[in-house]
Amino acid sequence: MNVHPPEFDVRHCQLPPPDPGVKIAGIRRASIRGTVRGFSLLELVVVMMVLVATAIIVLPMLKTTVATSDGRQATASEITTRTTLEVLRQAMVGDQGVMENLAHEPDALPREVSELVDPQPPGHLQRNKPQLARFDSIYRIGWRGPYIQPTGKNAEGQPTIIDGWGHEIEMQVDFDDDGQVNAEESRYMRLVSAGPNGRIDTPQDPANMEPGHHDQALTMSDCGDDLVVFLQVPDSRQ
Ligand SMILES: [Ca+2]
Ligand SMILES: [Ca+2]
After folding, report:
1. Residue 109 is assigned to a structural domain of this protein
2. How many A from CA of 155 to the centre of ligand 2?
3. Residue 187, in any domain of the structure
4. Average confidence score pLDDT of the chain
5. From the CA of 197, how far away is ligand 2's center (Å)?
6. What average pLDDT does this structure show over 43-53?
7. Residue 138 within a domain
8. In the chain, % of residues over pLDDT 70
């Protein structure tokens, strides 16, 4: 059979209709349209097995360490703790946080993180500043808990905020031994996670509250493996 090659129509950039009898690379064009071949079940199973095997290899690596922006390798527990501390910091000093509602009376501020998850105001607030026990929506002052949802329980079984190693995050504040928190003391409030060793290493004595500015100030080595977040003063530890 004498077959002429199809002529290309330049004006319309189209090939003329194919001759159904013409074979292209041994397959009729009609059969290309009719049988688009999919994956067989066996091929799909093999692909799934490869994906599962990859996940089994990669997921434990993600669980163990993650590279941080400064090039360190941080564990998932550390990342969880840093995230939790940031959420806590926002609950304290962020928009509509505790400080916004209570900072004009620093002695009414919470002294334990477990107080932040409670809809009821802390006992010392109810005793010392009963006028702040209810939130005034016009002046936007007074207790408006809970400020954060609990993530675990403390040693006494109370709902509280725990770090990535399962220990309650501690709020440290300078009382200056008189049992009250004044405005200056409230500046040095800080949140402390016990870190991987599960023990609070950061000293709580008043001389050690301010970070970095004088000889007695808190240094990095004082804090051991703890993770510390200062609520109001910048962290200038050396
Ligand atoms: Ca005091
Ligand atoms: Ca520690």
Report:
1. yes
2. 17
3. yes
4. 82
5. 5
6. 70
7. yes
8. 75
